[in-house]
Amino acid sequence: MGESSTVLSLRGATKRFGGLVAVNELDFDVTEHEVLGLIGPNGSGKSTTLNLISGSLRVSEGEILLRDQLISDLPAQKIARKGVARTFQLVRMLPSMSVMENVMAGAVFGHRRRWGREAERQVMKMLELVGLERRAAARPSELTYIDTKRVELARVLVGDPKVLLLDEWLAGLNPTELEEGIALIKRLREEGRTIVLVEHVMDAIRSLCDRCVVMSSGRKIAEGPTAQVLSDPEVIRAYLGEDDA
Amino acid sequence: MDILITGLLLGGTYALIAMGLNLQYGMSRIMNLANGEILVAGGFAAFWFWTAGALSPLLTIFILAPVAFGLNWLIYIIVLRPLVRRAKSRGQLEVDSILTTFGLSFVAVGLMLATFGGDYFSYSYMLTPVEIWGQTYAVNRILAFIAAVVICGVLYLWLNRSRAGMSIRAIAVSPDSSRLVGIDVPRLAALAFALGGAITAVGGALVSTFLTLDASTGVIFTLKALVIVIMGGVGDVRGTIVAALLLGVLETFVARVIDPGLTLAAAYLLFILILLFRPQGLFGRRQS
Amino acid sequence: MKSQEYKSFGTALVLLVIAILLPWFVGDFAVTLAVNMAMFTVLATSWALFSGPTHYISLATAAFFGLGTYTTGLGLDHLPYWFLIPLAGVLGALIAGVIGLATLRLSGVYFVIFTLGLAEMTRQIITFVQNATGQKGILISIWFEEATFYWMLVALAALIFLVGWLIGRSRLGFALRIIGDDEEVARHSGINTALSKVLLFMIPGAVAAMTGAIMAPRYGYIEPLIAFTPMLSFQVVIMALLGGTGRLWGPLVGVIPFSILWEFLSASFPNQTTLLLGLSFLVIVYLLPQGFVGLLLKIKARFGGGRGY
Questions:
Q1: Which residues of C are less than 8 Å from B102 in CB distance?
Q2: Chains with 3 or more CB pairs closer than 8 angstroms to C?
Q3: pTM (predicted TM-score)
């Protein structure tokens, strides 16, 4: 493997909602093939940051670059097409369509636009990856919660994104499902995918993330290898009163 | 100057009409497209009481208000609440309530046609002129304006000072949070809807003193009320009043200076401009 | 899926042939009724192409219809009738595009209100212009037999069904279904939601305009009140929703019974047609939210297998 390059950069990204500064001059880079954990207590601005990267929200100040290309001034659909894919905190399924069609949505319009037989092949590949190849014809209403999460994951992966944003993807899972979920993301990591993981589940962070960025009240308070960051006194202070997941 | 005052007089009455819709859409979240028909019905009632019993419209409204309140309450409970319950999203509720209130408006027009026929009706009430600042105005318009101001004022105070009023404003902002603080959302939504209907009917009675109505003119009033409510910002009382006054002046201006047949086009043009440049209205909050 | 498709195609062709041959087998009154049905089929099906997937209720049909009628009325002295029809279509598409760009980024409610006032406002403006220029109405000098109108409309209907079928299998059709399910997901999947909606809205705009252009000679005398009947928009909405927008043939299923009912009512109780409109809306919302199509699918699901992918 040659030199790893920077996939995503945030330079002084700031988001204000009236008087409230949700994200305050955030600077960090995401390197290719790494799994970056974005952690911090509730309300620290992690989800807002993901929203800024994916284009759901516009930055008030600062820049976000995807491989040296400015994306912070683009609408969400353009950012998606350039290869930034995200999941949502509350899983969003397309209720009137089958699992297959749900994943197709990502294949047809995403980073790699495919159609017809080729698209279907990619979709089946992804369904195999997440373990749902036998449920291609099912409706979202027939699936368990973790299965809908798998569908959403397949949908964001099928377009072959440059960077994957997972917004508390492991939330709401029971211990067994959690193990399966962590294993799945581990597989993605082994495939060399670039992932930004927003999580509260500390076990997951420890086992999946090479590096972490810690936020508190909109600012970055620590950045570095996971073990180092998690034993940083200031990080522990920020989490004081928070239960470890 | 004359245009200004006439416009303001008209606008004041419009404010009352739009207020009814504002309560129904802003607070109960029901886009009531039958609003204009309620207005016409109120006008019919005033006409009937005046021509049959020589009862002044200003007194008729005291009978009209509770009757319209009750009727609208029933409509909400029987026809609209099932939609609120079964709607899975706010967008779905809006579509359903649009179609339903359309249905109701046509049914109302059909019934009015059957009962009163398709003729225009108007009557002379207080047509005596009065001089203000060197120009003459009809007393009926002034009386209607004063009545509108009084009612709007009372409503404003009630919404901002009384507990029930503030609860209604709360459910306009966030029904879920309101529920959490113990506000009985379904009951208050029904209350807001019924109140809105009563106010619209009263507005209709007042308007009938100086405008000509017939069974089919409801839709024009609905459109105007919609323009006012959206222009002023949904759910905002002051915005509605300001927007109504603006519309009244604009309409009077267009009618006098350009052509009386273009009043609706002018209102509509204003609507388009607002939608394009400031969809949240003059005072509204930007919806996320 | 291939055999299923051939079956549908076959059925459609048979129905088309029957439709074309109809005027030779029925009396004059039936042909007149058939003209109305064909017209509403064209309008309702093209309406459903947009409003079905996006759930935006458009009441602009009357406005575009009037536009088409006036295109023929004003243009007949200078251009041939056969040219005016596609011209009306182009004009309709352009104006629909402009309206779409302006209003489709707003919520559904504002869109409905906007389209509600469109016909009224257009009518007011044209009346004003007519009063100002002194010209009262426009007399159309050409005339066709009822059957000719019927065949023109059947041809247009066939075209729309073809276009609808093609869109259903295309990326645009898929994009619109996704938008209808969850616009946020659509956007984050890379779909330009605004553009998709605008493109699609141009279809009913163009079609309604063409229909108006075709029908102009049938009215003989064009006046704002005739060209811009607001009832038209409501009738189209009801027929499409009654039949159901879930399938391409849904609106057709709504058009046939409703037109017959309407004909009957306007002949016997002309003042109660408004009442019929109102009751139909209520029936649709409370009893048939997915139209007849939805009802049929539910029955099918109960007795047969569900449809697979």
A1: 234, 278, 281
A2: A, B
A3: 0.84
Asked whether residue B99 is assigned to any structural domain, the reply reads yes
Domain extent for B151: 2-277
Q: Which residues pair with A163 in a beta bridge?
A: A84
Extract the tokens encoding C100.
């779409």
φ and ψ of B129, to 5 deg: -80, 155
A92/C187 Cβ within 8 A: no
Residue B285 inside a domain? The answer is: no
What does each of the 245 residues of chain A score in pLDDT, given as a tens digit? 445 789 999 999 999 987 888 999 999 999 999 999 999 888 888 999 999 999 999 999 999 999 989 998 999 999 999 999 999 988 889 888 899 999 999 998 888 888 888 889 999 999 998 888 888 888 888 898 889 999 999 999 998 899 999 999 998 888 898 898 899 999 999 988 999 999 888 888 999 998 999 998 889 988 999 988 888 888 888 877 555 54
Of A76, A98, A159, which has the smallest distance from its Cβ to C187's Cβ? A76
By Cβ distance, the residue of C185, C190, C193 closest to A94 is C185
Contacts of A110 in chain C (CB under 8 A): 189-190
In a 3-state reduction of DSSP, which class is residue A170? coil
| Cα of C143 to nearest chain B Cα, Å | 33
Return the closest-CA partner of residue A194 out of A142, A156, A137: A156
Per the structure, the count of domains in chain B is 1
Rounded to the nearest angstrom, the minimum Cα separation between C175 and chain A is: 8
H or E segment to which residue C171 belongs: helix C171-181
Contact C293/A at CB under 8 A? no
Chain C residues with beta carbon closer than 8 angstroms to that of B94:
107-109
For A134, the token pair is 């036998």
Written as one letter, the residue type at B151 is: I
This complex has an ipTM of: 0.86
Say whether C121 and B95 touch across the interface (CB within 8 A): no
Burial degree of B227 (CB within 10 A; 0-12, 13-18, 19+): buried
| 3-state secondary structure string across C232-271 | HHHHHHHHHHHHCCCCCCHHHHHHHHHHHHHHHHHHHCHH
What long-range pairs does C241-244 form, CB within 8 A, spacing at least 24?
C241/B99, C241/C284, C241/C288, C241/C291, C242/C280, C242/C283, C242/C284, C242/C288, C242/C291, C242/C292, C243/C44, C243/C291, C243/C292, C243/C293, C244/C288, C244/C290, C244/C291, C244/C292, C244/C293, C244/C294, C244/C295
Q: Which of residues 178-197 of C touch A (CB under 8 A)?
A: 178, 180-182, 184-193
CA-to-CA distance for B11 and B157, rounded, in angstroms?
20
Q: Which residues of A touch C174 (CB under 8 A)?
A: 101, 104-105, 108
Would you call C98 an interface residue with chain B, using a CB distance cutoff of 8 Å? no
Hey, are the CB atoms on B114 and C103 less than 8 Å from each other?
A: no
Contacting partners of chain B (3+ CB pairs under 8 A) = C
- The three-point CA angle C226-C66-B218 to 5° equals 65
Helix, strand, or coil (residue A59) = coil
Q: For the domain that residue B213 is a member of, what is the CATH number?
A: 1.10.3470
What are chain A's domains? 6-238 (3.40.50.300)
Contact call for C124 and B265, based on CB within 8 A: yes
Q: Does the beta carbon of C171 lie under 8 angstroms from any beta carbon of chain A? A: yes
DSSP code per residue over C111-162: HHHHHHHHHHHHHHHHHHHHHHHT---EE------HHHHHHHHHHHHHHHHH
Say how far apart CA B267 and CA B247 lie, in whole Å: 7
Tell me the H-state helices in chain A.
46-54, 76-82, 99-109, 116-130, 145-157, 175-190, 202-208, 226-230, 233-238
Q: Which of C91, C288, C294, C123 is nearest to C208 (CA)?
A: C91
Q: Indicate the residue of B103, B219, B264 with minimum beta-carbon distance to C278.
A: B103
